[in-house]
Amino acid sequence: MKNIQKRGGLVRVARWTGLLVAIALVAIAADAWTALGRRADGERRVRMERSPQWQDGHFENPQPLFNDWWGSLRAMFGASPYVGPAEPLPTVPGDGRRFETPPSTGLRVTWLGHSSVLIEIDGHRVLTDPVWSERASPLSWVGPKRWYAPPIPLAELPPIDAVVISHDHYDHLDYPTVLAMKDWDTTFVVPLGVGAHLASWGVPEARIVELDWWERTRVRGLEIVGTPSRHASGRTGIDKDATLWAGFALLGPQHRAYYSGDTGLFPAMKDIGARLGPFDVTMIEVGQYHSAWPDWHIGPEQAVLAHRMVQGRVLLPVHWGLFTLAAHGWTEPIERVLAAAEKAGDTVVVPKPGQGIEPLAPPMRERWWPNLPWETAAQHPIVSTQVN
């Protein structure tokens, strides 16, 4: 009898536990639901399916991505002890008044951390992958947390002509930031399918421009070209590659800038340089890499190689210095980029977060990050597949 009662009690506990877990999961899903975005349908979907990149119900890279799942698992248990800063980083805070004086060279870039850059080019302002949230996540209480507050409050930014978004991963497409910007007098330029997310969050369709690779649009006199990249997309776990990923070329009357978005190395980077370069400044991702996924993120040395392939003059490393998204030390990307660039004879600018610089008149480089242990390219090579 006692055993029967005991089993009955365990069953009740299990039922209540299951109910509580179900309620918790429903609450989490409800909290994240809007931030997940929406799949494309109607004419937007029809246009996506006409893309040369669309294959068998999703987008594909010409060179498929390699994944070493066992290596990825090992990386989780072999992370550097320096994946994030132990002390506050030096930033250059400010407000919109700093932009009242235009750049003397006609080109200025203000790195705001990770892949968010404010580019002033020939009288136009473009903002790349704006993320002002506390976390790169659909939830406000869990997910990679930023290391410092945005150097410039979102409300203090000057008028922005165009916001370009490279793909729909959370560290590049941030729902709260887009929600705060939806009534701005700006044009959102995004890869195919990403406009469905923006429209579901209240951005007017008239201010959304979706581009396939090599397609162009003009925003107030500035030409913006969607360029190929080698990556992936998805926000829910069941929508992998349902939207396109891309880089962008900004072509002004006097200057040209290139933003890689997230990418591995791929042969068509030479085509980007030949068709749209040379570029006065390139903003190429350098961080959040591992040898287990060498095609997803290009890595420091290959970023320098990509800079040369697209015919860049000055390299501004991005996709580092804000979130912990990989197992390497947080200063490692910039140390390795500088080592590779010195060997190749390339010019690299490394502003503090929030610091604006003119690539055509670069200031003397200041080492504002600490001297921490890091793995060299020989110790941890990042070599993308199917490049030759």
Descriptive overview:
The protein is α/β, with parallel strands linked by helices and about 400 residues long. Helix content is about 25%, strand content about 20%. It has 2 domains: about 1-30; about 40-355, Ribonuclease Z/Hydroxyacylglutathione hydrolase-like (Metallo-beta-lactamase, Chain A). The strands form 3 sheets. The protein has a 7-stranded mixed sheet with strand order 8-7-6-5-4-3-16. The protein has a 7-stranded mixed sheet with strand order 9-10-11-12-13-14-15, covered by helices on one side.
Unreliable residue runs? 19-28
Q: Which word captures the global form?
A: globular
The number of helical segments is 8
Could you give me the name of the CATH homologous superfamily of the largest domain?
Ribonuclease Z/Hydroxyacylglutathione hydrolase-like
Order of helices and strands: HHEEHEEEEHEHEEEEEHEHEHEE
Strand numbers in spatial order across the main sheet: 8-7-6-5-4-3-16
The CATH level-2 architecture of the largest domain is identified as 4-Layer Sandwich
Approximate strand percentage: 15-25%
Gyration radius, in Å: 22 Å
Helix content: 10-25%
Total count of domains:
2
